[in-house]
């Protein structure tokens, strides 16, 4: 092993010493450009970094143009982009004098025959299947330009809470894979502002995402005692939300508007409860259909999912309110129970004035109307008093009087039942108006908060 090292080190020193002496490629008068033999000697040095002094690092200049945003997979946290990548570096073995080479200042050479810096994207999580350019351009000073198309599947921490008004910021880190900072250094070939402007100019996709800006910074990656020179580009993209507003938010708002307008149906009608149940069923079907459009991750739920859940909960609350009001209007009235004094004072008194509920004017009070608020047991006394007759009356007259008394008692009983029903109806209407206003205030506040949050995020 020691003999091998002893032979290798002098050979490398001799090789780079010859390269330092022969700094220019040979040309012939009958040929334009460097000769094939001189280029072949450079090709033979492909395994070695093209530097006459290995203590000097090879500086690689990097620039790219974001040509397309192909997709964002929120569940897998993957960003798919298409880049036009351009690399520049200096090859100290590829230099010639244009005056001696027929005025040729630039030639193209095959990529496989020359040393290249192993610049990669650190966020790469899949094999690059894009087409590779087979040639590079070299000018007479040894400056090399390499262009290639790059389909990047990179990992990105995607935040979907603001969906569909979310803005994603993903990083693309370029650097050498094997060469440390002593061998390969990276720098920007163009200013960051120009890279961002070129990407906005040539971005061809007009789908779901639009480019906001590109930022970049150089840094040093440390791992143990080794250091790597890297450049990190921060690509900020914003989702175009018109599709989701039209397909999700507007239909949901229409269904909520129909649910609000359903409060104007008569509360004592059974159709109101069935209408709300049908509306909830339709909203559930809508949620199942739009579930495929919503992004899903294990980290959290988007705000629009919470928005739909709250809307469904509000619809269920409105249905429960209808059930309660229906019970007040029908169940208590059918039992001929008078309205308790506490309910009459609290609901028909204070709450009715609070919500500005105006009770319809009552009919002029008659003697028969005096018993409407009495206990139903008093009806028996009324019935007995009406059938009491003088003992000298004929049997036919007594039978007629008894029949008339029974008719009068039945009529008064119906009036009592009607008055009880009307009073319970007023209680139900007051509660219905109160709960409707509370429900409307809750929906309005909720809609304002959601709208303000989305407007702030959309304008960021």
UniProtKB/TrEMBL annotation:
Its main location: membrane. Forms serotonin (5-hydroxytryptamine/5-HT3)-activated cation-selective channel complexes, which when activated cause fast, depolarizing responses in neurons. Gene3D superfamilies: Neurotransmitter-gated ion-channel ligand-binding domain, Neurotransmitter-gated ion-channel transmembrane domain. The chain crosses the membrane at residues 242-265, 277-294, 306-330, 434-457. The lineage of its organism: Eukaryota, Metazoa, Chordata, Craniata, Vertebrata. GO terms for molecular function: extracellular ligand-gated monoatomic ion channel activity; transmembrane signaling receptor activity. It catalyses: K(+)(in) = K(+)(out); Ca(2+)(in) = Ca(2+)(out); Na(+)(in) = Na(+)(out). This is 5-hydroxytryptamine receptor 3A-like. Residues 38-240 form the Neurotransmitter-gated ion-channel ligand-binding domain. It is a multi-pass membrane protein.
């Amino acid at each position: 092993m020691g003999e091998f090292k002893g032979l290798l080190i002098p050979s490398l020193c001799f090789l780079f010493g010859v390269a330092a002496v022969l700094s220019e490629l040979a040309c012939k008068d009958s040929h334009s450009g460097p000769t094939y033999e001189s280029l072949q000697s450079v090709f033979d040095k492909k395994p070695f970094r093209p530097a006459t002094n290995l203590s000097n690092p090879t500086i690689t200049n990097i620039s790219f143009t974001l040509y397309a945003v192909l997709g964002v997979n929120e569940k897998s946290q993957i960003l798919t982009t298409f880049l036009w990548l351009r690399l520049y570096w200096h090859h100290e073995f590829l230099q010639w004098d244009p005056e001696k080479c027929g005025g040729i200042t630039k030639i193209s050479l095959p990529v496989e025959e020359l040393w290249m810096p192993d610049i990669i994207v650190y966020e790469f999580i899949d094999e690059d299947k894009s087409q590779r350019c087979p040639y590079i351009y070299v000018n007479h000073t040894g400056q090399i330009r390499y262009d290639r198309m790059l389909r990047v599947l990179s990992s990105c921490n995607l935040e979907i809470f603001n969906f569909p008004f979310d803005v994603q910021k993903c990083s693309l880190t370029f650097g050498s894979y094997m060469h440390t900072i002593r061998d390969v250094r990276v720098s920007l070939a163009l200013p960051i502002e120009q890279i961002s402007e070129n990407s906005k100019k040539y971005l061809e996709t007009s789908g779901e995402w639009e480019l906001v800006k590109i930022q970049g910074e150089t840094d040093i990656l440390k791992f143990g005692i080794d250091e790597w020179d890297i450049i990190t580009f921060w690509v900020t993209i914003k989702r175009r939300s018109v599709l989701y507003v039209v397909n999700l938010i507007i239909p949901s708002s229409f269904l909520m508007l129909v649910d609000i307008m359903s409060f104007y149906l008569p509360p004592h009608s059974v159709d109101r409860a069935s209408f709300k149940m049908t509306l909830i069923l339709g909203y559930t079907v809508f949620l199942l259909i739009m579930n495929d459009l919503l992004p899903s991750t294990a980290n959290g739920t988007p705000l629009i999912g919470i928005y739909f859940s709250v809307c469904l909960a509000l619809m269920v609350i409105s249905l429960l309110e209808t059930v309660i009001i229906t019970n007040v209007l029908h169940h208590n009235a059918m039992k001929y129970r008078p309205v308790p004094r506490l309910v009459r004072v609290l609901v028909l008194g204070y709450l009715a004035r609070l919500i500005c509920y105006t009770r319809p004017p009552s009919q002029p009070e008659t003697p028969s109307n005096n018993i409407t608020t009495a206990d139903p047991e008093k009806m028996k006394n009324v019935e007995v008093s009406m059938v009491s007759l003088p003992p000298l009356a004929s049997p036919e007259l007594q039978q007629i009087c008894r029949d008339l008394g029974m008719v009068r008692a039945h009529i008064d009983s119906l009036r009592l039942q009607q008055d009880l029903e009307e009073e319970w109806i007023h209680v139900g209407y007051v509660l219905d108006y109160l709960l409707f206003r509370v429900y409307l205030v809750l929906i309005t506040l909720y809609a304002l908060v959601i709208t303000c949050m989305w407007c702030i995020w959309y304008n960021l």
